[in-house]
């Protein structure tokens, strides 16, 4: 999938992020090609979420560049970055509980509408909303307020809100955290379906989920890229095992 | 140049009054997120405490009035926290309206007890007279208030940084959940915070009796400016409050000097909005990575 | 009866009550009072929009109410003066008409300013503070400071604004005697009509995509930002609309009551408007309107009996509402209705309760 000729969609070069003297990311280079499904893993504090925060404009880097399809993202306001075609989810899903599932999706899909057209009432369901609703499989709950959804359903709704926006790049922050086995299964299928026609970056902790659904993996550790490659190679890499299992084994040997 | 310099001590003394009032707010607003509109009425309670004591025991009773007013206003604040505010944590805007209801009741109660007209408090003999400072003439009373404000700041600082209770208070301020699971009785800390914050309003109330007559609605004159001090200084930031209070006092006094009293407030408002363009969260900010 | 139909029925019933029954049974004096409450209801409608729907607690609506009121009153004063200086200016020793006043001699200009001035100031303030993500309590405090500064400015500029007395003594309201019963009836109908139109417009706004977006901004401003919207724009628009409504309310207040003065638009009157909205029910536009009428009626009739008592009652009522029924009268009504509906169909499994019971507007 990630052949050179496809060209890079997201290019991060020499990225450094510092919080009050603490270096959260210390020089990361990362390239995500068009159509790729990339997993970002690493122990707590590795800088995974910070990386996403920088791409989406929530955090400003101390140095480095983030280019998206040739456009420099650093310094842009969050909503501008979204308008370029980058969508993200959060670890704790936030949907608008007072709005119905359909209204949530419609709100997401309408982000390019001029202000004046927003003054009209919604009539019917647009194609983007209908197909997103279909993809996430919440059709039966379309008219219910999002507040009644379960945790898993909320995550799916959030993903649905993203795809309704037809983004070029999706960033999912721990999509299966706190989910039941069935919900994880369902999310995995959803992910595979979305990855077929989107570029997706997934931050994940869950190793089993990773083994089943990942192809390309980047391992972050203490703010740097440790290893990059396909799942099997990454899993076999002794440095990765060290990071995840601790140093004791090696030191003892 | 000279009349300009005259404004300096005046600005300082306005700043000192603001600081005394805002000091309590940095506790209740800055730390607990409670916008206590009744803070102004705790000031009033302090003023009337001084009035009662000094009309019976003479002006010298101001020294006694300070701790008594602290206790009276503190007790009122504690009662407010116990009876109402504690059900409202996490809903700052609702607390604002709730405490405004309380403030209405307290003002009317003062009118019924002490009468609607303002009362004049007997000042102690050693506070009558003026001193020349930086070319400006300043009443001793103003000087006393500056000293009082400085003493209160030092006291609050020492309490927050040197005492066990104060450290607990800071822990709750920075991360309530973490403090709770680390064994800090956050409910207790909240009660104490409210007691001290309101008590400081009482002290401010005594100070106000030294510079003019006081009445049931005295609190409303100062409360808005005091909130602005906390906003400009940054939530829960002691040094922010000190700097902002002095700066606001100066700004007030110089704006009045250059224009007039009616325009000064508008200028202060414009300056604050402009300042928030540079520092939207005030002078000093507690950083956190949390969203929203 | 479907919810939609019931809504229309209630609106029609209220319209009948306000437009037919009230003018028929109320003596002119009381009708004029009702017109005053309806003015407050228009301002409250704006607060319901900004605060209830948008989560912006604005404690400075008095400023916008005042701008509208003064714009209207300035025209009326100039018209009465007929080319001379308005009476209060001569009393305070002003010799030449200030430049600020001149354009207000034109009624079209004055009426335009009733809306333009509040909207412009709210837009400017909104853009500046919302862009910097100043919100919640900070915003509330800033608007309150604005109200305080505005009244001090009005009081201090005696020659320009009439000072504490404000602008009063109008003798000619668009060719009519403002004291005549006929004029008072007319202003009553105009006020009621404007309220009705603005209510329908506000309701339309709430139901539109923009209205949904506004609620989303209230409940999760940061999330909305990551959907590609700029919350600052959304909030500024809603705030400006609410300011415009307050301006219109202020302009209508002038012929209805015959005065506009600083004491009508300072910190306390601004807060009282918010209180009325909270008591009526902030999350429903109808609640805001209802609250404004009922609270102001209660204030008038109570103050006639026992002046000081009103403050106790207002304070106590407010503490009770915030503690026991934060959604106000409308919230209580909805609770009762749902409880009744549930009892009627006990065999069915209970529908999941609305989730927002403990939900609160984020700071």
TrEMBL record, chain B:
It is found in: Cell membrane. InterPro entries: ABC_transp_permease, ABC_UrtB_bac, BCAA_transport_permease. It is a multi-pass membrane protein. The gene is urtB. This is Urea ABC transporter permease subunit UrtB. Keywords: Amino-acid transport, Cell membrane, Membrane, Transmembrane, Transmembrane helix, Transport. NCBIfam families: urea_trans_UrtB (TIGR03409). The chain crosses the membrane at residues 12-38, 59-80, 140-160, 192-212, 264-286. Its main location: membrane.
From TrEMBL, chain C:
It is a multi-pass membrane protein. InterPro entries: ABC_transp_permease (IPR001851), ABC_transptr_urea_perm_UrtC (IPR017778), LivM-like (IPR043428). Residues 341-363 are annotated as: Disordered. It is found in: Cell membrane. The chain crosses the membrane at residues 34-52, 59-78, 108-130, 137-156, 186-202, 237-261, 273-294, 306-325. Its main location: membrane. It comes from the Bacteria. Keywords: Cell membrane, Membrane, Transmembrane, Transmembrane helix. The keyword Membrane applies. Residues 353-363 have a biased composition (Low complexity). NCBIfam families: urea_trans_UrtC. This is Urea ABC transporter permease subunit UrtC. It comes from Actinomadura parmotrematis.
